[in-house]
Amino acid sequence: MGVAHHSAYVVWLEAARVEWMRDRGLSYRELEASGVSMAVSGLELRYRRAARFDDVLRIECHLVALRSRYGRYAYRLLNERDELVASGATDHVPTDRRGRAVRLPSGWLDALLPHVETGDDGA
After folding, report:
1. 14/20 Cα distance (integer angstroms)
2. Gap between the Cα atoms of 8 and 16, Å rounded
3. Are 93 and 42 contacting, i.e. CB atoms less than 8 angstroms apart?
4. If both were cysteines, with which of 44, 48, 53, 65 could 123 make a disulfide (CB 3.0 to 4.6 Å apart)?
5. CATH topology of domain 8-115
6. What residues in the chain have per-residue pLDDT under 70?
7. Beta bridge partners of 86
8. In angstroms, how far is CA 36 from the centroid of its own chain?
9. pLDDT at 2
10. Whole-angstrom Cα distance, residue 100 to residue 39?
11. pLDDT for position 122
12. Whole-model pTM?
């Protein structure tokens, strides 16, 4: 059909979150090595227009809420003409290696809190 499959967007959001952390000097790999993962507990996506084959997209990612047991990212996906292709949000719960909900370690909470941007809660 020449358009991106709707499921591809979820993968793009994950890549954007990892890059968002890297751009701020943080490493998701190091978070996981410490025994904590940020499990996706919710996902919202609103498709505004089709992403076509070979389009170059820019994904804006913002951490919009953070507590010791919860985080939320908001996203905007734009095409080369700065047209909104999709918007969305993901909710996250810190989990241990067994998949149980835990508190985000204070060092990670302290490192992430300065990057919370209020005013846009996503989708």
Report:
1. 10
2. 13
3. no
4. 44
5. Thiol Ester Dehydrase; Chain A (3.10.129)
6. 1, 120-123
7. 47, 77
8. 16
9. 85
10. 10
11. 57
12. 0.92
